[in-house]
Write a structure and sequence with these properties.
This protein has helices at about 15-25, 65-80, 85-95, 105-115, and strands at about 40-45, 45-50, 55-60, 60-65, 125-130, 130-135. It has one domain: Winged helix-like DNA-binding domain superfamily/Winged helix DNA-binding domain (Arc Repressor Mutant, subunit A, Orthogonal Bundle). By secondary structure, the chain is an alpha+beta fold.
């Protein structure tokens, strides 16, 4: 039986991943899951997310996001169209279960206020009533 080790860590800039990768120097790269970092830059109409640099550009202008906002935006943007519940988003960003907190809706609200042209009518992060949130890629005009 193969030994499988799963390491879960929030790592928006890739430093933890790189340290683990360096420590596992003898393991072939094809045996290491690279999926969280396969897209170092997410480029959407009007919004660019430079994951490893921790930079978000809206219309070419840098947007300041805190750790939770950046991590949540990256998680949603890496999976456009997929619906995530509050619990799933909280767990993806903070690595722990979500317990009756307004952290996720408040974070989504702050992300929208900083990244959306009209936060009351969001372009990128949509609320799916009774289910959660999803990232939508707007059509280019």
């Amino acid at each position: 039986m193969e030994d499988i080790i799963i390491i879960r860590a929030t790592d928006p800039d890739g430093t933890i991943y790189q340290r683990i990768r360096d420590a596992l120097g003898g393991i072939p790269a094809e045996e290491i899951d690279l999926s969280p970092h396969k897209n170092a830059v997410l480029d959407f109409p009007g919004l660019i997310i430079q994951i490893k640099a921790g930079v978000v550009l809206r219309g070419g202008i840098s947007v300041q996001l805190n750790y939770g906002e950046f991590s949540m935006l990256c998680h949603l943007a890496r999976h456009p169209g997929r619906i995530f519940s509050r619990d799933q988003l909280y767990n993806a960003v903070y690595g722990e279960d979500h317990f009756f907190s307004n952290t996720v809706p408040n974070t989504i609200c702050r992300i929208r206020s900083k990244n959306e042209p009209d936060p009351r009518h969001p372009t990128y992060i949509k609320t799916v009533v009774g289910m959660g949130y999803k990232f939508v890629i707007p059509e280019k005009h």
